[in-house]
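PROTEIN DESIGN WORKSHEET
SECTION A - STRUCTURE
LENGTH: 132
TOKENS:
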């Protein structure tokens, strides 16, 4: 019961933070992770999302535009920036994760309540004259 209560608190906090994170914080996280990525990881993301660069191609990574190997670069000279696609994808994922987390955290509260309600109930098949 105590462990289930602690799991509820942890899961409820994470779910609320997933639902409460705003677009500017998501942008900060995406920028920070783009900074520490290797070039091969960036190229792989650009190929899989079919985009070039992060947000502003003139800002910290101007080489992203020249070294982009996405399919959109061969079709036309202008590609959509990866940051916008990452934001759409992360926003949708965070809302889904937060909603599912809230649902299961409230079912855990039901489990805590049921455990408190029925924890001291005696077994009807037990011998009534037996001690404990």
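SECTION B - SEQUENCE
RESIDUE ASSIGNMENT:
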């Amino acid at each position: 019961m105590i462990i289930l209560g602690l799991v509820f608190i942890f899961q409820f906090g994470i779910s609320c933070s997933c639902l409460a994170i705003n677009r500017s914080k998501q942008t900060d996280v995406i920028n920070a992770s783009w900074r520490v990525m290797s070039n091969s990881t960036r190229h792989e993301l650009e190929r899989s999302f079919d985009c070039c660069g992060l947000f502003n191609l003139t800002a910290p990574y101007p080489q992203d535009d020249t070294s982009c190997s996405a399919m959109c670069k061969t079709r036309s000279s202008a590609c959509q920036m990866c940051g916008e696609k990452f934001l759409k994808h992360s926003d949708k994922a965070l809302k889904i994760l937060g909603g599912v987390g809230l649902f299961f955290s409230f079912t855990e509260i039901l489990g805590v309540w049921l455990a408190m309600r029925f924890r001291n109930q005696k077994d009807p098949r037990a011998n009534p004259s037996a001690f404990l």
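SECTION C - NOTES
The radius of gyration is 25 Å.
Residues 20 and 98 are 9 Å apart (CA to CA).
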